[in-house]
């Protein structure tokens, strides 16, 4: 009996080992499949980003003050002379008035100095004329005394006194003429010194008036007011940023490319930007050297006409054309595909009635397709969707 029982157990065990599990049956219509093709392979990558203005102007105040008025709100169109913020600073206004009065005082002093110098020159000219007249008078007197002395009518001493006076008057005339000659030079020096003080006061007056004028903070650029950082009553310091103005007519796309894909991006590569309202072509113009939050910023210039509705900060999708391979074996990009990965894909066989698990070696990737390096040949059809639930099954039945 024991031998019979043992033989029965062994037989049942052998029978169970010989039974294979039934192959799972899947609906072919519910599977995402694709065929392996040979031909041009375009390698690209897709990245999200935003439209940003090419020209962005931060508006800062040149002086300190308290915000008295904010006439506009963000979104308003502005011109270069549009006032964005009005500040008040009584100290600056008082200094401007003082500088204006100081300039007026110095200008009056300059005009008075011109008159005084002109009068001084006239006095010197009168002194020269008087000295010349006395010299001439003494010359005539000397000639008369000389004739009279010859005739014995005037003593010899009178003739000698006349000669001494003649020499004195000649020296006096020379001195007065020298003073007159140096008058213009000294007058010019005095006027230059006074004029320098006037110029200095005028520069200070212009500076103070410019500071007062800068209390009305202007846009300085034609565009749109993007943001305001102040409210009425707030006190701001010199150099503080008050607003931001951008030019909405000239925009660029700023894409955030994943750090792992950034080395493939090069300057000058073509980019197709989807603005959600149309496609526009662009070119990579700048690649940021820094990595932020695992991505690299890439600037794309958009020389063409932008679609209607394009505006700053609008979310966009960009597809960067990395390279074009004229002859390659490729398949639509499977789920969970990675560069150079080896995947187990189900290949359709037996006139699409079954699928067998096949090891496939992938190469380079694009947004919609993947390069096939090994495991498949042209014309093979594989399941591209997620088949993780059947990863342990070597074969599936399809209907």
Walk me through the structure.
The chain is 34% helix and 34% strand. It is α+β, with helices and mostly antiparallel strands. The chain folds into three domains: 23-52 and 250-398, Beta Barrel (Elongation Factor Tu (Ef-tu), domain 3), CATH 2.40.30.170; 57-83 and 215-246, RNA polymerase II/Efflux pump adaptor protein, barrel-sandwich hybrid domain (OB fold (Dihydrolipoamide Acetyltransferase, E2P)); 90-201. The strands form four sheets. Strands 3-12-15-14-13-16 form a six-stranded antiparallel β-barrel. The radius of gyration is 50 Å and the shape is rod-shaped. Residues 15-19 have low confidence and may be disordered.
SSE map:
Blueprint (H helix, E strand, L loop, with lengths): L1 H17 L6 E2 L6 E3 L1 E17 L2 E5 L4 E5 L7 E2 L4 E6 L1 H61 L5 H58 L2 E3 L4 E6 L6 E2 L4 E6 L4 E8 L11 E5 L4 E9 L7 E7 L13 E18 L9 E8 L4 E12 L3 E6 L6 E3 L11 E4 L1
List its traits.
399 residues, alpha+beta, Elongation Factor Tu (Ef-tu), domain 3, OB fold (Dihydrolipoamide Acetyltransferase, E2P), 3 domains, 6-stranded antiparallel barrel, 3 helices, 21 strands, rod-shaped
């Amino acid at each position: 009996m024991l031998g019979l029982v043992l033989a029965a157990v062994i037989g049942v065990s052998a029978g169970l080992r010989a039974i294979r599990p039934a192959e799972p049956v899947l609906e072919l219509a519910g599977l995402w499949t694709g065929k392996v093709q040979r031909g041009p392979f375009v390698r690209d990558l897709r990245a999200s980003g935003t439209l940003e203005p090419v020209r962005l102007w931060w508006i800062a105040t040149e002086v300190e003050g308290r915000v008295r008025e904010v006439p506009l709100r963000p979104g308003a169109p502005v011109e270069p002379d549009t006032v964005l913020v009005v500040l008040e600073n009584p100290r600056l206004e008082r200094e401007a008035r003082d500088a204006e009065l100081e300039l007026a005082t110095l200008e009056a002093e300059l005009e008075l100095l011109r008159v005084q110098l002109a009068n001084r020159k006239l006095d010197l000219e009168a002194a020269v004329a008087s000295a010349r007249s006395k010299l001439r008078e003494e010359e005539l007197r000397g000639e008369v005394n000389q004739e009279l002395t010859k005739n014995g009518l005037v003593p010899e001493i009178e003739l000698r006194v006349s000669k001494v006076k003649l020499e004195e008057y000649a020296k006096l005339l020379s001195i007065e003429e020298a003073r007159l000659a140096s008058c213009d030079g000294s007058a010019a020096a005095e006027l230059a010194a006074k004029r320098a003080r006037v110029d200095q006061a005028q520069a200070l007056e212009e500076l103070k008036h410019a500071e007062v004028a800068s209390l009305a903070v202007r846009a300085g650029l034609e565009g749109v007011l993007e943001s305001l950082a102040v409210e009425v009553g707030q006190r701001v310091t010199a150099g503080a940023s008050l607003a931001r103005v951008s030019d909405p007519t000239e925009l660029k796309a700023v894409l955030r490319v994943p750090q792992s894909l950034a080395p493939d991006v090069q300057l000058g590569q073509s980019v197709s930007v989807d603005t959600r309202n149309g496609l526009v072509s662009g070119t990579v113009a700048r690649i940021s050297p820094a990595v932020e939050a695992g991505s690299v910023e890439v600037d794309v210039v958009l020389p063409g006409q932008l679609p209607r509705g394009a505006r700053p900060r609008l979310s966009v999708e960009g597809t960067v054309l990395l390279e074009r391979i004229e002859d390659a074996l490729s398949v639509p990009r499977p789920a969970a595909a990675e560069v150079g990965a080896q995947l187990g894909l189900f290949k359709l066989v037996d006139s699409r009635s079954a699928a067998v698990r096949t090891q496939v070696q992938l190469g380079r990737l694009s947004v919609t397709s993947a390069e096939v390096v090994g495991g498949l040949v042209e014309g093979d059809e594989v399941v591209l969707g997620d088949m993780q639930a059947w990863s342990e099954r070597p074969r599936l039945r399809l209907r």
